[in-house]
């Protein structure tokens, strides 16, 4: 069993904000697959699907970014999912807009959602797809990540959807080291 976790903040006011990049790409993937039957819990929405004869949990914590780890840990425990079978999709300030970095483990890199996941899973050994949102050093980090993408930026992200969908499809059937070498991009 595997779990795909997208990070973001709940509510319409956060739609198309930089910090909701994880939600954006998971929603696009699920739309392509025709998976629309979300189930809801008080702090999460999720889907249970079989992909290649393996049960997959798709999860969007609705507890706000900084508390995502509590929800992830609850689902991990309930479904008894090994930590190495968890893949988190999130934004990354240190990557140029639209660049992708795939990691098998590592520190949170200052990302509060990942920091909270580490705290509640008690490990850094979970997989990530980090999608670049760039960084505007003239704005506070909070204002920047909670700011909305411009139309041009959204068009750039939209062009990335097929690639992210390929990565997610490959995650179910390919060794993760192959995904890292094939899809991670240099930051330029």
The chain-level structural class is alpha/beta
Oligomer: single chain
Low-confidence stretches: none
CATH superfamily: Peptidyl-tRNA hydrolase
> Mean of residue pLDDT?
94
What attributes characterize this protein structure?
Rossmann fold; about 35% helix; globular; 7-stranded mixed β-sheet; alpha/beta
List the helices and strands and how they pair.
Elements (H helix, E strand, L loop, with lengths): L1 E5 L14 H13 L5 E3 L2 E8 L2 E8 L6 H12 L6 E7 L7 E4 L8 H10 L5 E6 L8 H5 L5 H21 L4 H8 L5
Task: Characterise the protein shown here.
The chain is of the alpha/beta class and 188 residues long. It has a single domain (2-183), classed as Peptidyl-tRNA hydrolase (Rossmann fold). The protein has helices at 21-33, 68-79, 112-121, 141-145, 151-171, 176-183, and strands at 2-6, 39-41, 44-51, 54-61, 86-92, 100-103, 127-132. Strands 2-3-4-1-5-7-6 form a 7-stranded mixed beta sheet. A hairpin with a 2-residue loop joins strand 2 and strand 3 (44-51). The radius of gyration is 15 Å and the shape is globular.
